Amino acid sequence: MKLPIVAASAAQRLFLGAQGLLDDPTRRATTASLQALIDRLGFVQVDTINVVARAHDLTLFSRLDGYRPPHLKKLLEEKRSLFEGFTHDASAIPTIWFAHWKPRFTRDRERIHTHAWWQHHFRGTDGAKVVKDVKARITKEGPLKSSDFEHPEKRGPWWGWKPQKAALDFLWRSGELMIPRREGFQKVYDLTERVLPEHHGLPCPDPGGHRDWACASAAERLWVFTPKELADFFDAIEAPEARAWCAAAEKEGRIVPVQVEDADGETRSAFALADWEARLARLPEPPERTRLLCPFDPILRDRARALRRFGFDYRFEAFVPEPKRQYGYFVLPILEGGRLVGRLDPKLHRDRDLLEIRGLWWEPGIKATRTRKRGLDEALGRLAAFLGADAIQLP
User: Fold this and answer.
1) Tens digit of pLDDT for each residue in 105-161?
2) Neighbours of 16 (CB within 10 A)
3) Domain stop point among 195, 215, 235
4) The model's pTM
């Protein structure tokens, strides 16, 4: 039987639609609309780099013009409808799924104990005792930050964490501590049972139920996918489990095998939700505006998929030595309607309220027409207003 073909343009629209980039970004921004957006995305990656704005803020702002950081803070710290945990990286995750992180907590606890990370960060100390003592202090004293723990040996940045900071991270990754709030951007830790008392006692899902949740939830946020992409979405299961789920879901009629056309015209085998054609027909046209995306935006997080789907070759170069960078430190892709047309390298000078664009590059075949440049100017104006910058400096 000949499999249905999802044309490249259709695959792009389906992915943009699934990830909220075809919705009207001017709709009203409230904590309720933000919660609905994050529920739809599945999670939003949290990152510390602040050369322009935090990654999570840029991801949410690109989909909701009126979004401001206090909206997210309220969901995390007051409503507790989101919690900070790990997917492929640190993320803000809907709390309704907390029980499905319990297998992850167990997995991470076991992995970290046997990983070189443990030996590196606890070198010269009794790691188990440090962890026990750190948890005991929080149990007795209440929420604490890493800076509340002193250590005589000066260590340096991330790769030279003091043992107590490593213990806090281990206890967080293993689910014994949560992050009830941040001060500045520094994590404050407390016992999970005090932060999420109603969710802490929920039973751990059985392996089959956990697999079904992970795959079905990822499929609902991708619409067209491979088993590996399902497994990678939350990083909650392994690829063989996702393949088994796909086989069962196909038999049940929940998903269908398809051939997906890539941006270069090649086709590859994949699956799609059974109603993918109906979903495609219901999708609105892309908003007639230009937007700037975060380097960790959901449509770009999987760099290989972004290249296949959009023909957009993106590499995050913040950790590449400056002389070896092709573009810049924190480059933002430019989304025009539903098409990735370029990228730019911004820097916010907070002391001067200035948004500097240090480089601008259009994709091959993209002409810098007057209309295109006007759209980019408008996008930069919105970003500057979001950042509180009074002026924009172009290259």
Assistant:
1) 999 999 988 888 777 777 777 888 999 999 999 999 999 999 998 755 544 444 446
2) 21
3) 195
4) 0.94
